[in-house]
Automatic annotation (TrEMBL), chain A:
Entry's family note: Belongs to the ABC transporter superfamily. Drug exporter-1 (DrugE1) (TC 3.A.1.105) family.
Record key words, sorted: Antibiotic resistance, ATP-binding, Cell membrane, Membrane, Nucleotide-binding, Translocase, Transport
Any one Gene Ontology cellular component term annotated for this protein: plasma membrane
Name under which the protein is recorded: Daunorubicin/doxorubicin resistance ABC transporter ATP-binding protein DrrA
Residue ranges of domain ABC transporter in the record: 12-242
Basic and acidic residues composition bias: residue spans: 323-338
One Gene Ontology MF term: ATP hydrolysis activity
Annotated source species: Arthrobacter livingstonensis
Pfam family for this entry, one: DrrA1-3_C
Span of the signal peptide: none
TrEMBL record, chain B:
Ranges that cross the membrane: 46-69, 75-95, 116-135, 155-179, 191-208, 245-265
Record-given protein name: Transport permease protein
Membrane topology: Multi-pass membrane protein
Keywords linked to the UniProt accession: Antibiotic resistance, Cell membrane, Membrane, Transmembrane, Transmembrane helix, Transport
Length: 338, 272
């Protein structure tokens, strides 16, 4: 029996989490604070320590140092309580390959203590909710990747946990399925759940998360709202390809006069790239190009990518730890943005 | 939408940090149920307890019967208990192999994240495996019956003999479960199990009378626990006697469980 009054304003409170795999510091002192009822994004490349961090928060791994509390309950000493408060959806669907959709959900419902006809009812309800009714009886081997992820998420929601961990919920999914997954996550949040999601995609964090932590080499290198994050990363880039390469010098001159920035010419393709701070000014540029009879073959806008986020925040893409140190000192303004 | 609305965190007083005996039992039964569904889905995993007992019984009887006992009919009372013990004990190693395969799967991560008894997946697997032993035991005696082996000890003694064999196989499955937990791959579990089991089952009195063996081998066969188990089955099935051999066999099983159950559970909990 535990005390009944715990502060539940914070869904997750992690301090200095460390996990070593041999000599590799997979997670190297991660702090996370997630308020109840919000969506928190953890953004980082492969191997940054995202999954390891989630595994420790979800009681799957024991931290080598540091502590974490879920709704005020310690993941180490009160792990069985923590497990009653969380749902975990892994990077690779953690459902039973040999069982059908219904059997999987019935299995987890039974394990969670539903009795009598309740497991079957719950399974049918969730399959309906996630659009899997037609696949209910099929063994999982015939499921598509998207169907597996949805079943996996459904299985995490049986106990209606107040905190849900989503580890890269859309990695490897096609764009349409990805959109469906986003919709599901949004509905989940609208229902009052707290969600911690990891992702490699900046736009996913942007679309779903209230706050974002950028993680690199096991450390949080930046934290803030996605707006704060994006403004620190810089701007989208306007890319132009001209029909006649002889027009390039005059086009660069027009970009300078209308957008007020210098453009870069990429060798070989002759493509012009210019930072786009104010989208509205692009209209002026296009009008100016038409006025001067400069024909545009191709035009596109390049959003900042995770690579650029990393370049900006850490000064490297996948560089050395020394550079990370340097970069962390170089970005105090974002740390202060909290 | 109702299905995915979360329970709001109002009454944390209902949360408990430990698992009671009732929940352990319920979780274990659910895990055993999962094992049964898997068997229904992939019946081919029962080949070692269905085809193998029939095939080996017929093969061994007709190949060795004439040479060892003069004819097949006289060989059956010696050989059926031997092949029964060999088949059922060999099938016990599947526990370890399947446990390793299972623990490598993604679904195990979910088990670990659920508020269930930690030991339930292991306990459920061990429970499901008793069904495999029951099938192998029944089929071996049935094949013997068809070939003309009518145990003089009577039906009750045969059932008791079968139960003792199943108990010993279940005890041994703790050893394979231990290797299943600590080994890195399913095939290495299989390898380890074979190296232990093959000599253990053959260097015994299972297929030949022990006194036909050279003295050094006879010494080993006489202390081999498999020999005690085979003798116990022969005493029961052929004479209806429950002798010292049965006591040794059951005691051996108890010792194995007492040794390996804590080892396995500890290694398992460290990983689970």
């Amino acid at each position: 029996m535990v005390s009944t009054t715990r502060p539940t304003e914070l869904a997750i409170e992690a301090r200095g989490l460390v996990k070593l795999f041999g000599s590799n510091r997979a997670v190297d002192g991660v702090d996370l604070t997630v308020r109840t009822g919000t969506v928190y994004g953890v953004l980082g490349p492969n191997g940054a320590g995202k999954t390891t961090t989630i595994s420790m928060l979800a009681t799957l791994l024991k931290p080598d140092a540091g502590s974490a509390k879920i709704f005020g309950f310690d993941v180490g000493t009160e792990s069985q309580i923590v497990r009653q408060l969380i749902g975990v959806t892994g990077q690779y669907a953690s459902v039973d390959e040999n069982l059908s959709g219904t059997e999987n959900l019935v299995l987890f419902s039974k394990l969670l203590g539903l009795r009598g006809s309740a497991p079957k009812r719950k399974a049918a309800e969730l399959l309906e909710e996630f659009g899997l009714t037609e696949a209910a009886r099929k063994p999982l081997k015939s499921f598509s990747g998207g169907m597996r992820r949805r079943l996996d998420l459904a299985a995490s929601l049986i106990a209606q946990p107040p905190l849900i961990f989503l580890d890269e919920p859309t990695t490897g999914l096609d764009p349409r399925t990805r959109g469906q997954m986003w919709d599901t996550i949004r509905r989940l949040v609208a229902g009052g759940s707290t969600v911690l999601l990891t992702t490699q995609y900046l736009d996913e964090a942007d679309q779903l998360a209230d706050r974002v932590a950028v993680i690199d080499k096991g450390r949080v290198v930046a934290e803030g709202t996605s707006g704060e994050l994006k403004s620190s990363v810089g701007t989208a880039a306007l890319q132009l390809r001209l029909s006649e390469s002889s027009d390039i010098p005059s086009a660069r001159e027009l970009i300078r006069s209308t957008l007020g920035v210098d453009s870069v010419v990429s060798e070989g393709t002759g493509q012009l790239t210019a930072p786009m701070q104010h989208a509205d000014l692009v209209t002026d540029l296009l009008l100016a190009l038409r006025r001067d009879n400069i024909a545009v073959a191709e035009i596109s806008v390049q959003q900042p990518t995770l690579d650029e986020v990393f370049l900006t925040l850490t000064g490297h893409g996948t560089g050395t730890p020394a550079e990370t140190e340097k970069a962390r000192r170089a970005t105090p303004e974002l740390e202060n943005a909290r | 939408m109702t299905a995915i609305t979360p329970a709001l965190l109002q009454d944390t007083g209902a949360l408990r940090n430990h698992v009671g005996a009732r929940q352990l039992l319920s979780n274990t039964l659910t895990m055993a149920w999962r094992g049964l569904i898997k068997i229904r889905r992939t019946p081919e995993q029962l080949i070692d307890v269905t085809v193998q007992p029939i095939l080996f019984t017929v093969m061994f009887a007709y190949i060795f019967g004439g040479a060892i006992a003069g004819n097949v009919q006289q060989y059956l009372p010696l050989m059926i208990p031997g092949i029964l013990v060999q088949t059922v004990i060999t099938t016990s190693m599947v526990t370890g192999v399947q446990l390793r395969e299972d623990m490598d799967k993604g679904v195990f991560d979910r088990f670990k994240s659920l508020p269930i008894a930690r030991i339930a997946p292991l306990a459920g697997a061990l429970l499901t495996d008793t069904l495999r032993y029951a099938i192998a035991t029944t089929l071996t005696f049935a094949t013997g019956w068809v070939m003309g082996y009518h145990p003089a000890g009577g039906f009750g003694a045969v059932v008791l003999a079968g139960l003792i064999v199943m108990l010993c196989a279940w005890s041994l499955s703790w050893i394979w479960a231990f290797f299943g937990v600590i080994a890195r791959s399913a095939s290495s579990v299989q390898g380890i199990s074979m190296i232990v089991l093959f000599p253990l089952t053959f260097l015994s009195n299972a297929f030949v009378p022990a006194d036909s063996l050279p003295s050094w081998l006879r010494a080993f066969a006489n202390v081999n626990p498999v020999s005690h188990l085979v003798t116990a089955v022969r005493d029961l099935a052929n004479n209806g006697q429950l002798g010292m051999a049965a006591v040794w066999a059951v005691l051996g099983g108890v010792v194995v469980v007492a040794t390996f159950a804590p080892l396995t559970v500890r290694a398992y909990m460290r990983k689970a």
